Structure formats: C-alpha cells, structure tokens
Amino acid sequence: MSFDAIIVGGGLGGSALAKNLAEAGHRVLVLERETRFKDRVRGEQMHPWGVAAARSLGVYDHIIGNQTRWWITYLGGSPMAKRDLARTTPHGVGSFNFYHPDMQESLLGLAEQTGAEVRRGITVDSVVPGSPPSVKFQKNGKREVISAQVVVGADGRNSMVRSWAGFQVQQDPDRLLIAGTLLEVTPVPDDSTHLVAGPEGAVLMAPLGEKRARVYYLYRKADGDQHLSGNQKVSEFLSNCRAAGAPGEWFDGTHIAGPLAQFNGADHWVDHPARDNVVLTGDAAAASDPDWGCGLSLTLLDVLHLRDCLCSTSDWSAALDHYARKHDRCYGTVHQITNWMAELIWTTGPAADERRARILARIFSDPAGLPDLIGLGPESPTDEPKDLSHES
Ligand SMILES: Cc1cc2nc3c(=O)[nH]c(=O)nc-3n(C[C@H](O)[C@H](O)[C@H](O)COP(=O)(O)OP(=O)(O)OC[C@H]3O[C@@H](n4cnc5c(N)ncnc54)[C@H](O)[C@@H]3O)c2cc1C
To answer: Whole-prediction pTM value?
Structure first.
C-alpha cells in the first residue's frame, strides 16, 4: 500500500488531521510511539475558538469533556470578574476541559475508524525530505522505509521530525515556568474555569467534571526555579496554589491522581513550517507558552488550515506553502498578544504596577477592541488587523 500522507505523532493534531484527510479519500498512515496514552501533563483547557475549530473538524463530539460557561478571575483571594463565555464570545461557547490521554485514545481510534492506517509502538529513526519524502521506522526490531507525497511532523514540542527535516528553531527568552497535576475529589465548581492571580504566581484550575480538575501553577523564572516536578514536590506545589489565593477547600481532602511536572513556558517555533514535502503542525511547528492556554486551539487551527489547503488542490507542494503562510499569520498574531500580556502581567516594579492597574481596569470594564486570547485568539485586534477567515 502506498500513502498520500504519513503523519508522525497521533496526538490531537496528528489524529484530527488523519481523520480529516482519510475522510476526504486520502491514504493516510499514522505512526505513534505510545501503545497506550498516559498523563504527560499537557493541555486540558481549550478556549472557545479552539472549540469552534474542533467542531469544524468533526472531532468535538468524540471528546468526553466538561464545558465551562464561566471564566472567573480571582484577585487577592476573591472573585473579581466572572465572564459569561457563552454570551461574550463570537462562537457562543464556554471553554472545554478534558482529560488529555482519553482525548488522544478517542481521536486516534476515530482516525482509524475513518480509514487511516494507525500503527502504534513505533520508533521512528529518521525522516528524509524530498520528492518523495520518506520515513524510516521500526517496530519489534523489524525495520521499514515508506515514502508518501507528504510527511507531517505532528510529534509535539520536542519534535524530532523538525530536526531531521532541518528546520531552524527559534525560542523566546525564558520568562515563565508552569507546573501541573491532576486532582480528584475536589469541590471546585465545575461550571467555570478559574484563574487565580496572586502576588508570586497564578493558578489555573480547569475542572474536568466528576470532581476532577487539572491544576496548573504559573510563576516567574526570575524569582527562582522551584523545580516543581515529582511526588516529593506536591506539598510545595499545593502550598504555592494556596498562597496565590486559591480557596484552600479546593485542595483539602483531595487526591493527587497524576504526575506533577514542570515545564519552561518560553515559546519555541519554526518560521514557515514546510519544506521539501515535509510539514509541521501543532506544537512541532510552534509550541506556544502553555501559561496562556492557546496550544490546543492553535493545533486545531493548523489542522483546519492544512486540511483545507491539501483538499483544495492536487499540487500539494503549493498547498504546503500556502498552509505555512497561514500558520505564520495565526501563530504570529497569538504570539504577539501573549508577549504583550506577559509584559503587562508579569513585569515587576512601580511603573509596571501602575500600568497593570490602569490597563486591567479597562480590560475588565470595557474590553471591546482589546486583544482577547480566550474569546478571539488570532482573530483578536492587534496593531495590524488581519482577517484570517477570508485569506485566500
Ligand atoms: C504543562 C502544559 C500545560 C498546557 N496547558 C494547555 C492548556 O491549558 N490549553 C491549551 O490549549 N494548551 C495547553 N498546552 C499545550 C498543549 O498540550 C499542546 O499545544 C497540544 O497538546 C499539542 O498537540 P500536538 O498534537 O501538536 O502534540 P502532542 O500532544 O505532544 O502529541 C504528539 C504525539 O506524537 C507522539 N510522538 C512524539 N514523538 C514521536 C515519534 N518520534 N514517533 C512517533 N510518535 C511520536 C507522542 O507520543 C504524542 O502522541 C499545555 C502544554 C503543557 C506542556
């Protein structure tokens, strides 16, 4: 069997793309390393614009999750703004929270049911760009080399496809660290996503339903790296969450149901993620700082754009180039906004305090015309407005 597309990585991006290309009649092979998905402490809270992309790709109904209509921001330990996402976002939905490993199992299964060939437990040894590009891989000591019209690197933030294909990676300076774990038996209200801003750090609590929640703690690297990974750091992690102002009862009597892991938030990305019939999507193309919770949504926008480009022409080399330009615009807009927000929220000193008080008051009282990472993402107004929906 020969393939039109070989996709390395069966995460959110790889599976959603495989399902859509197979549905359009293309022969697709997915190569996934894991035989069973486990908790890697990844994204579990998707903004409303990501939900819209998930619906357009036909994957939303296959993810079991919790819609949270409200977004509550806490300051000094008390709620200071409660946003109705269903009423204040163009897509009219809340944010969508789900357990990442279950989402992966479900979507990779969906890709297979739709007609993609899925092989798991694969070790990919190399990708060679060209016409055609090829992938060398092995399973249980049996080696194979397969070529296709296009090879897609959907292999996440530490992408090897990216290195094998010779893409240059750029990285922002270190700024924020993010640590996360999974709570069970927590009374956190699950109709809302909760953002708690404290003096030293912030907490994002994403309820998954049935008294489970993913909790992340965000803090400045310049204040000292606390290395919040591993069981022995759980009590330090929880006391940081409490010190940020998160209600203590959210954590009292809860059970830690997954690993605790910390990551460096700094964005790393590739400009124009397509060359010689190898293309990158999702985190492999651009890992947006997880502190802003845009990665899942950006990944699905990549898939939407790549699907539309590949399905609109038989000239796939031109399609990849077109996709890469769309990707750069979308990710570039979100990146610019997250950089502004990081500067606004995390800079220290009296001038920064004064600016923060002034601008946050405006954001909470009259947000019209301001960037909105939660509701609009790359459709947000910036100093260079772009209408991405009509881009040809
Ligand atoms: C701590 C943290 C918190 C986050 N929080 C949020 C959030 O709240 N909201 C949000 O929107 N985003 C968040 N993100 C980002 C989000 O998780 C990612 O943007 C998203 O998972 C990217 O999807 P992907 O399919 O590109 O990559 P991944 O989810 O990483 O999937 C890649 C897949 O490729 C497989 N793979 C890797 N290498 C190989 C190989 N060599 N061969 C075969 N298979 C391979 C992996 O096993 C995996 O299944 C967070 C990220 C982190 C680290």
So the answer is: 0.96
